[in-house]
Design brief:
Strand content: over 45%
Order of helices and strands: EEEEEEEEEEEEEEE
Number of strands: 15
CATH class of the largest domain: Mainly Beta
Number of domains: 2
Radius of gyration: 26 Å
Distance between the termini: 25 Å
Largest sheet: 8 strands, antiparallel
CATH topology of the largest domain: Jelly Rolls
Helix content: under 10%
CATH architecture of the largest domain: Sandwich
CATH superfamily of the largest domain: Galactose-binding domain-like
Length: 172
């Protein structure tokens, strides 16, 4: 079972000759001989000089790494390419490694303005935590959890400054 996200896929393989393997998604009908598959990319396996010299080979398309969107139960097929009967003997397949691709949200702008004796901070609503510190280097950063207001896709915090404070946003 896959957590719904994008993945980089690596084939751990040893080889004593170069060849290729193709990874495909099986769409159906499952358990039948006439399955429909969609190619996801290829593993370009180089010569590792020995079948026991294992390396991680990335899934690629046109020489560029591929991300594969997977969710829930999936059926994937690995097919050896190259010269039938000859290239298959060049490699020792070990396993497939699926590495989740976590993307950071777009950077948010923390706006700061003065209104009378108050300082108002505002930023886009989303996956952000507001942190506060008394100093940039030596003081700990503490999450601000009270006093925030959300309206119109923006969050804001209005404070009366009593001492120097530094603020920053971090992604959840």
């Amino acid at each position: 079972m896959f957590i719904p996200t994008n993945y980089y896929v690596y084939l751990r393989v040893g080889s004593f000759g170069g060849t290729e393997a193709e990874l495909s998604r099986v769409l159906g009908p499952l358990g039948q001989s006439n399955q429909f598959v969609v190619p996801l990319g290829r593993f370009l396996i180089s010569n590792h000089l020995m079948r026991t010299h294992y390396r991680y080979v990335p899934l690629t398309h046109a020489g560029h790494p591929v991300t594969v969107q997977l969710a829930g139960q999936e059926t994937l097929r690995l097919t050896m390419l190259g010269i039938a009967g000859q290239d298959a003997g060049k490699v020792y397949l070990n396993y497939l490694l699926f590495v989740p691709v976590f993307t950071s949200p777009e950077p948010a702008v923390l706006s700061i303005r003065r209104e009378a004796n108050r300082v108002v901070l505002s930023w886009p609503a989303g996956p952000w935590r507001l942190l506060r510190s008394a100093g940039l280097n030596s003081s700990p950063w503490v999450e601000v959890t009270e006093g925030m207001v959300e309206a119109g896709g923006q969050r804001s915090l209005s404070v009366v400054p009593t001492e120097p404070a530094f603020y920053r946003l971090v992604a959840l």
